[in-house]
Model the fold of this input.
Amino acid sequence: MYIEKKYGCILFSEWSSIKAFGALDPGSNPGGAIMIEVLRLGHRRLRDHRISTHCGLVARAFDASKIIYSGEHDSSLLDSINNVHKKWGGSFSSRYVEKDINFIENYRGVKVHLTMYGLPIQKHIKNIRKHKKILLIVGGEKVPGEVYKLADYNIAVGHQPHSEVAALAIFLHEYFQGKELSKTFPKARLKILPHERGKNVMEVTTK
Ligand code: SAM
Done:
């Protein structure tokens, strides 16, 4: 049941109302028990704020569970990701780790490093998909040599230099085979009602 339409937003009162829209099931998770944690190496507070934020947004939007940053500590980066999470829902989390090499060494799961020098994703994604707990590592300006050795897979998304954001998005899309696009985000305060023109955003209020 809708309450009011104002400023282009339809305001709803309960989850049950939202479920009536069909596609929005608060419990659904197309990834199931899969856990992909993204490690973004070597963040620089001044130069990388935007691109590191975008790594977090892409990771969250395309069904990774978590992003971990290394490099310079930047609480405003974690705040930016958290604010999106609060508004748009889901259970994504972000944190900082100081010693990234230690973190990779001690990680229990399969370690996939994205690099233009690696093996082609199109030939290896089928094998990687067999693993359900993955640390997905993307670099910044310079990636320490140890990362290539510690990784179980060094994977290229094409062999041209581009961006950690693009590499992340394409990897997740290939891994989830498009299911990530139907992911729903429980406890969202805002939801988009797709529209062929213009913006239609629904504000969700819980009693
Ligand atoms: N020379 C770097 C490399 O090893 O891919 C490019 C640096 S790029 C600015 C930053 C990050 O984007 C890389 O560390 C890597 O994670 C990702 N990246 C860029 N191009 C890529 C590609 N073709 N395939 C996979 N990852 C890529």
